[in-house]
Amino acid sequence: MTGIKGCPLAGLRLNPKNLMRIIPTQGINMNITVNRKPHTFDGAEISLVSVLESCAIPTKGIAVALNNHVVRKSDWQTTMLHDGDSITVIQAVCGG
Predict the structure, then answer these.
(1) How many other CB atoms are there within 10 angstroms of residue 49's CB atom?
(2) Residue 73: is it exposed, middle or buried by C-beta count within 10 angstroms (0-12/13-18/19+)?
(3) Residue 86, exposed/middle/buried by CB under 10 A (0-12, 13-18, 19+)?
(4) CB count, 10 Å around CB of 75?
């Protein structure tokens, strides 16, 4: 795939896998499930930590699974979510 003549990307060879990096994401919505509740976010991807913040979920004392796989807290900032992903948040509780 090549760019269009007169376009700033003219003559550039584009890899289809990287197209989402240059296509504006305005108007694109993602549906992500957080603890079995559907949420909609703007854009083609969003970080895990941004979703937690948007849902007002405190980040202390919790574990997070993305599509049934635990994500280390050190990876929350760099873990990008996509349409259809499912997050499960588990909070530690004391007592008995």
Answers:
(1) 17
(2) middle
(3) middle
(4) 13
The model's pTM is 0.68
Q: How far apart are CA 66 and CA 76, in angstroms?
A: 10
CB 28 within 8 Å of CB 44: yes
pLDDT tens profile 4-34:
455 555 555 555 555 555 455 556 789 999 9
The helices-and-strands tally (H runs, E runs) of the chain is 1, 7
Per-residue DSSP letter, 2: B
**CA end-to-end span of the chain:** 61
Q: Find all residues with CB under 8 Å of 69, minimum gap 6, and list them.
A: none
